Amino acid sequence: MKKIAILASGNGSNAEEIIKHFNGSDLAQIICIASNKKDAYVLERAKNHNIPSFSFTKSEMEAGILEKTFEEMEVDFVVLAGFLLKIPDGLIHNFPDRMINIHPALLPKHGGKGMYGMRVHEAVKENGDKETGITIHFVNEKYDDGRVIFQKAVAVEESDSPEDIANKVHALEYKYFPKVIESLL
Ligand code: GRF
């Protein structure tokens, strides 16, 4: 049984889809959800599903709390689902090809520091892009830069608002992210 840890900073709708996907699985279980925001809704979701969770500060992260905790918990695989801080090098080294992120656009477009949430969908709209999508990639030392594992595109209509675009992208995330995780385990 593989042990998965999820890192998330906000709402956690992707985290919840992943939890549901592996509920009752004999392949993997979500053993913890950790957030850098102590009031993130994802922690509420974790509680509702009886999944151990904790929050930490940026300086605790930089001092190695995740490396230490994940080692103690014997985590096999780390999933970033809307996690906004840069991952410390130590954690990257501990999880070579075993830590992935989802980005709500077709990287290398609309990625990098500060490109998250609605900012990404607004940029797609402003740019007049005819399509957007999701990118699932390994995590390396830079934002949104690691080797791409999976991408899926969806058409953007001229009449789509950034909110419409966000809804289309979320639908792709929920459909594919849990399956891609499973395929990597
Ligand atoms: C998702 O769109 C994901 O691609 C991005 O952050 C968003 C998180 O949404 N990295 P949620 O917290 O899973 O609802």
Instruction: Name the helicity range.
Output: 25-40%
Please compute the radius of gyration using only Cα atoms.
16 Å
Low-confidence stretches: none
The N- and C-terminal alpha carbons lie at a distance of 10 Å
Could you say which overall geometry the principal axes of the C-alpha atoms support? globular
- What is the ordering of alpha helices and beta strands? EHEHEHHEHEHEEH
- Bound small-molecule species: 5-O-phosphono-beta-D-ribofuranosylamine
- Look at the structure and give the mean pLDDT: 95
How many H/I helices?
7
Can you list the strand order of the major beta sheet? 3-2-1-4-5-6-7
What do you see in this structure?
The chain has 185 residues and is an alpha/beta fold. It is 38% helix and 23% strand. A seven-stranded mixed sheet has the order 3-2-1-4-5-6-7, covered by helices on one side. Strand 1, helix 1 and strand 2 form a beta-alpha-beta unit. Helix 1 (13-22) runs parallel beside helix 7 and helix 6 (118-127) crosses helix 7. The chain is globular and about 50 Å long. The N and C termini lie close together (10 Å). The mean pLDDT is 95. It binds 5-O-phosphono-beta-D-ribofuranosylamine (GRF). 5-O-phosphono-beta-D-ribofuranosylamine binds next to helix 1 and strand 5.
